[in-house]
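Troubleshooting log. The previous structure file for this entry was overwritten by mistake, so regenerating from the original sequence record. Sequence copied from the archived sheet and checked twice against the printout by T.R.
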Amino acid sequence: MRNSPLLIHKTIESCGITLRAMWDIYADCHYLTKWPRDRKIPMVSNAVIAIYTIQGSGSIELKNGDVLILSGPSIVFLECDQIKQYKTNGLFWELNWFEFITNGVAHIPFGQPIMLTNEEYPPILSEIKAFVTSDDDIKLNTSAAGFGYLFYKWISLSKENLTMSRQEKIVSDVLAIMSTRLGDNWKVKDFAEETGYTQQYLRKLFLQHAQLSPKQYYLKLKMDASLSMLTKRGYSVKRTAYELGFNDSFHFSRTFKNKFGICPSDVSKGCPLPKH
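Regenerated output below.
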């Protein structure tokens, strides 16, 4: 498990936002954090938390008893003093955690998970992570400006999520279930039974809104997870295959190579993925 504090001993300000803390987290199934017991910085009543789930799934329990189930890729904003505890919901949870204060008026959609589809976010976040650990003031300000850009971008996307169609909501709900079942060997019929829809209907919705069948999307999530497990957690090929519900490491290795063009054993040795 990786739980790296990138920024907790200083604050940086840009674009009307003061960034108080940033964490880069890759949590296993045992991850559980309770507040205020496990907080690393003092509580500030007007602080806002932004949780960017990259992949996997987690759950946030609020003081009012509500529980939010998050799956990637998504962003959710919460009031800092309303959080009780949070934990992994399933096999693992990869996320970036931001604590900040807005220095002005901003309409923040608290408690509303916002699904993300744009591929522009990972590169921007990589740059923020690289700069936010620097002692150079220019790089620090750049990292804060980068987060400010993402914050206002995510706020604008919240309006689009409110207009999500019923069919899109069904796809989103199934994706959330998939994210919590990465360690299982579920079939499409299992997701159909879980949601109360037919396999044919789910396939139609996925092809229409996700451009992949449910089976293909479930496998994509598993493959993306396997890459993180091999590179970020140092798992062996055999253990990765087992954790992700594959019947054997040979089947997993063949599927991995078809997806990424390289054997998982080579990736675990540090070899880069082929460029397409």
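The radius of gyration is 19 Å. Archived copy saved in two places this time.
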